[in-house]
Design goal:
The protein has about 475 residues and is α/β, with parallel strands linked by helices. About 35% of the residues lie in helices and about 10% in strands. The chain has helices at about 10-20, 40-50, 65-80, 90-100, 115-125, 150-155, 175-185, 245-255, 260-300, 335-340, 365-380, 395, 405-410, 420, 450-460, and strands spanning about 85, 110, 130-135, 165, 190-195, 220, 235-240, 320-325, 350, 355, 415, 430, 465, 475-480. Bound molecules: pyridoxal-5'-phosphate.
Length: about 475
């Protein structure tokens, strides 16, 4: 099949990246590899010789051509935003940049407990205090279906300066965003949406609208997750009615590297051009392929084994998301993952009850057929008696706050053996990863549910991240004064 190469003409950064390699250069600038490290070692060269920076690569050292600015303006226009920045530090950095721009240390923000750890770390850095909102849980499937309007209204009474949401959630569900945004705007406060997994939204009629179109004030998305961008490439888009463009710009630069790599930036530009020119066509095919894949696998089983759009209110589930409901099969998701790895398939996330497969524009019909062919025999072999739907630890903890997150983060700490940790105040943020949602954050009580739940999840084969003692035999806690 002939390879297409059309994006370049409408993507200034992509064009700059490709043009660099079409000319000859004598760089006496960073990066130190000078795109010639292969003369030192072929392996090192294979890794670094296609790397060019923004400064002196995509543009002149003094940014005379303003190529990045031009491409960011194109992105702002496509998403209907009045502010856009490209990040090489992932949604982690984009979250930090927005949160730094919100208020003053000590201010409170309303935040969904489904937030990724990067959002919590940003709150610690910015000195903002969370007012937690718990997600509603769908009784049939046990999955979180977003923040209810009642829950937002409850926390709005505490006068937060902003609302921070995670949409879609890790399992593909969404809150009723329009209602939440309008309630926040009635109080003249901004709604910041971490849409790390929703970069494709708004570019096909059968997908949810993107959150800027829904009225949100900021959209953060990873271009390397649901979209085919370079690792850690991310996009920050904003409307500046309730946010300050000057503060956003300052915060973005405060927290971003001063040496951004060219490839991630060029990839964001190229993906923007792709969505603009062929987004609907390619996403339509992907939606169809995912639906066909689910039907093909489902045909082998009696109970519904995938989350599907019809499980939720219209527009409240990402039809591209592939979430296997392992409890319906009565086996362990981690065992399925293990068998798949042996057969050369990697999944995005697996715990006892759930497996998430990431499908993107880069997957072909043949890839889905291969996956179905490999998956069905494994599921048939491991299948047992179905279990009740259970809500995973990440979605079921109601935090018990003992002290401010920031105070606990900087407090004097000690290690407490697991058997004595219940009732102590955690100094660590601990999260099964993925999804990277805190089960406990600094300043919160370690309860029996948390300590036992983390240990059990780890034993079941889930990766538990960020605990000072990764064995979970002890927990880092705040030292009593
Ligand atoms: C909801 C959410 N936000 C932010 C991030 C961080 O994204 P990145 O890996 O692009 O820094 C993740 C990562 O998984 C995430 O799931």
């Amino acid at each position: 099949m002939e390879k297409r190469n059309e994006l370049r003409s409408s993507a200034p950064l992509l064009d700059a990246y490709l043009s660099y390699f079409e000319a000859s250069h004598t760089p006496f600038t960073i990066p130190g590899h000078k795109q010639r490290a292969s003369i030192i070692d072929a392996g090192l060269g294979a890794v670094v010789d296609t790397d060019i920076p923004l400064y002196g690569g995509l543009d002149e050292i003094k940014l005379t051509n303003q190529t990045l600015k031009k491409s960011e303006a194109l992105a702002a226009k496509l998403w209907g935003a009045d502010f856009a920045r490209f990040s090489t530090g992932g949604s982690t950095h984009a979250n930090q940049a927005v949160i730094f721009a919100l208020g003053q240390p000590g201010d409170k923000v309303a935040i969904s407990r489904t937030a990724h750890r990067s959002v919590l770390s940003a709150l610690v850095l910015a000195g903002l205090e969370p007012i937690w909102m718990s997600p509603e849980i769908d009784s049939a499937t046990g999955v979180p279906i977003g923040i209810s309007l009642t829950e937002l209204q409850r926390v709005l009474k505490e006068n937060p300066i902003a609302v921070l949401l995670t949409e879609p959630g890790y399992l593909g569900t969404l809150s009723d965003l329009k209602a939440l945004i309008s309630a926040a705007h009635e109080k003249s406060i901004p709604v910041i949406v971490d849409a790390a997994w929703g970069g494709h939204f708004g570019f096909h009629k059968d997908l949810p609208a993107h959150v800027i179109a829904e009225g949100a004030d900021a959209l953060i998305t990873s271009v390397h997750k649901a979209l085919p961008g370079y690792s850690a490439s991310a996009l920050l888009l904003a409307q500046t009615k309730y946010l300050s463009a000057e503060r956003l710009e300052q915060s973005f630069e405060t927290t971003h590297t001063t040496s951004p790599a060219g490839a991630p930036l060029a990839s964001i530009d190229a993906v923007r051009a792709l969505l603009q020119t062929r987004g609907s066509e390619l996403l339509g095919k992907l939606i169809e392929n995912v639906a066909q894949f689910k039907l093909a696998v489902q045909a082998n089983f009696d109970l519904p084994i995938f989350l599907s759009p019809s499980d939720f209110a219209p527009g409240r589930f990402d039809p591209v998301k592939i979430v296997l409901r392992v409890q319906q099969l009565g086996c362990s998701g981690v065992d399925i993952e293990r068998a798949l790895i042996e057969d050369g398939v990697r999944v995005e996330m697996a715990d006892r009850d759930t497996i998430v497969f990431l499908a993107t524009l880069a997957d072909t019909e043949a890839d889905f057929q291969t996956l179905a062919m490999k998956l069905v025999p494994i599921l048939k072999k491991l299948q047992g008696a179905p279990r009740e739907s259970a809500t995973a630890l990440s979605w079921s903890v109601i935090p018990q706050i003992a002290t401010s997150m920031r105070e606990a983060y900087f407090a004097e700490t000690e290690m407490a053996p697991a058997e004595n940790a219940v009732g102590r105040v955690s100094a660590d943020l601990i999260a099964p990863y993925p999804p990277g949602v805190a089960v406990v954050a600094p300043g919160e009580l370690l309860t029996e549910q948390i300590v036992k739940g983390l240990v059990a999840s780890q034993k079941a084969g889930v990766r538990i991240a960020y605990a000072t003692d990764p064995t979970l035999n002890s927990f880092r806690v705040v030292k009593p004064r």
